[in-house]
Amino acid sequence: MKNTLEKRILLFAFLVLTLTILVNTGFNIEGFRRDYRDGIVLRCQNLAGELKSSIENVVALGVPMEELDGLNARFQGIVTTDPDIIYCFLEDQAGQPLFANDPSFHFIGGVDFTSPSKSGVSVVTFPQWGKTYDVSLPINSIVGETVGTIRLGFPDSVLDEKLAAVYQRSMVVLGFAFLIVFALIVVFARRHLIGPIDRLCSVAKEIASGHFQVAIPTMPTRDFAELATALKDMSASLQERDEKLQDGYQELESTNLELQKSYEYQEKIGTELRRSREMYRSLLEDASDAIMVTDDEDRVVLVNKAAEIFFGVKKERVEGANFFSVLEMLHCDQLETLYDMHQRILAGETLEAQIDYIRLDDQRPVVGWVRGSHVVGMDGRHMVQTIVRDVTKEKEIKDNLEKSAWELQRLNQMKDSFLGVASHELKTPLTVIVGYADLILNEKIATLDGTVAAMIQNIADAAQRLSGIVRDMVDVSMLDSKNIHLKTTPHNLNQLVRQATKPILRSFEQRNLALVMNLQEALPDIYCDGERMVQVVGNLVGNALKFTPDGGKVYVETRFLKTLRPPFTITAATSPGLCPLTSSPMPYVEIVVRDTGIGIAQVDQNYIFDKFYEAGTIEEHSSGKVSFNGKGAGLGLAIVKGIINMHGGEIWVESAGHDPENCPGSSFHVLLPQYGGADLVLS
């Protein structure tokens, strides 16, 4: 995390500084170029003005321009003394040169006017000089007629030569400034941001690896100190929970071992009985369970050896005695129940029951499982065969398992309580971070450097994201404890969809994704909690954005339909696990969020609405430079399902499977009753 965040901060600072320097240098060089060009143009205009004045004075005396003397030498002197000017000549009204610094110069031949004359300055292209600025002034006669034109020109290459030195000097100065500012940013980031974050990450990793007795380092700022305190409290709570889980696990493991031994023992006895050649003949004598046979007069006619051990009484004392007298001797309290059971078995039924009695030989309480079946003797008399199995250990194991299950349920409730407390405790430092970040961005932004402002903005964005996770934890805790109360009022679903998608339109633009809204017109209002429904649509569209590669599409559709399915709340109350049908169609509004993303594996589709369940692995799926990860807090879809269920609706997902190469996409369907599940009554 440290390397990634540090690289991002430094890369962002480097790009901002580089862009600032390049833009500033470009503006400076362009301004210098423009000023230098305007200076040469002004110089040429002054020289042309002086020549114009001299020539017009001579022409006013009646001397034709063709007979003027010394102009060639004067033009040549201007070009010689001013190295920036490459030509100076006088042309007549027809455009033919009369005098020039170079007598062989001809202006018209091979010249291309790139831009028309503006204030006496034109841009022309010469074969030998390339792009050239041409400054011209007309020569007027004494009556105001134009009789000729003075032209001076300088090439564009003169500006490039002057700019080379200016560019080198500017780059050297700005380079030193860049190095100093960038070094300050690096020192600040490592000392006040990356360092504390790295130490907190190390503490979090230690806690995640199971080392809860970790020392919390001292933080330089109050915000990080509050976060460190929260980590310390979380570590203590996790340690306490881990100890209780270990105790419960050991107890459960011990109980499971005893049960396994019991099962292995029973399996061993059964195997030995199956292998015995005299299984039927030795069944009564060698059976592991106590077997007693009574006649229709309730007398015990047969007892096996296991019964002697089981009841702790000799066979001679039991055979021929009344069956219920024997049970009374064993201090059994279910005599009336067993008597009714005995009569029903004589009538042909097979029944089972549990009896509690005191073994006579050691006075130990025993729990037995009785199975009575009807048999007919060789003389045709109706008898009852009673098989009693000692289930004392199984009863103890069952009781222990129930106790362990109750303990696990209690631990789960403690976990839910911990989530609520942790999310509540995280809200306080997050509120401070978000509050101060917003205060700086709203009121102190003018006093900050652009780079620092961007860093503060990143802090605010990260705090807002963590605040969203905490809000999800609070929502899950409230859903589990059924403390969320909906404020159902009439709403236009299309407006709620637009409200939910508006905050993430910027993310679609950054990812080059298309958001296609196919919203049915004239959709009837539905009774729902508008804020919660915006949360539902926002979570579904956000998931589609996350798992769709760059350049893909996300579709949001709404439509009105009628179906015989009643709302979820009525279905759950009347027929749990079933979906009865109504006698008349009921109005529903359906929302479908469909994407062209990587899809969801079939094995994950049954669990994606569970708390803390995340489908897939952390990997980059985007086709461009903007990446997205599949992992998150794992609470969004659980919250969505909880809210939809509270509205009496239903949500399900359809996907052909997970395929990052072909991107089969996924479709989430939300079915909402128009009038709300709590407002409908089945006819």
Distance between the termini: 59 Å
Cα shape: elongated
- Based on secondary structure, the structural category is alpha+beta
Compute the number of helices. 17
Gyration radius over CA: 48 Å
What does this structure look like?
The chain has 683 residues and is α+β, with helices and mostly antiparallel strands. It is 51% helix and 19% strand. Strands 2-1-6-5-4-3 form a 6-stranded antiparallel β-sheet. Strands 8-7-11-10-9 form a 5-stranded antiparallel β-sheet, sandwiched between helices. A 5-stranded mixed β-sheet has the order 13-15-16-18-17. Strand 3 (112-118) and strand 4 form a beta hairpin. Helix 3 (157-208) crosses helix 4 (222-275), helix 4 (222-275) runs antiparallel to helix 10 (392-443) and helix 12 crosses helix 14.
Short description:
With 683 residues, this protein is of the alpha+beta class. It has helices spanning 2-60, 71-81, 157-208, 222-275, 283-286, 305-311, 315-318, 323-329, 335-346, 392-443, 450-480, 493-501, 505-510, 530-546, 568-574, 602-605, 636-646, and strands spanning 87-92, 97-100, 112-118, 121-126, 130-140, 146-155, 290-294, 300-303, 351-358, 365-376, 382-390, 489-491, 514-519, 526-528, 553-563, 586-595, 650-655, 666-673.
SSE topology sketch:
Layout: H1 2-60, H2 71-81, E1 87-92, E2 97-100, E3 112-118, E4 121-126, E5 130-140, E6 146-155, H3 157-208, H4 222-275, H5 283-286, E7 290-294, E8 300-303, H6 305-311, H7 315-318, H8 323-329, H9 335-346, E9 351-358, E10 365-376, E11 382-390, H10 392-443, H11 450-480, E12 489-491, H12 493-501, H13 505-510, E13 514-519, E14 526-528, H14 530-546, E15 553-563, H15 568-574, E16 586-595, H16 602-605, H17 636-646, E17 650-655, E18 666-673
Parallel strand pairs: 13-15
Antiparallel strand pairs: 1-2, 1-6, 3-4, 4-5, 5-6, 7-8, 7-11, 9-10, 10-11, 12-14, 15-16, 16-18, 17-18
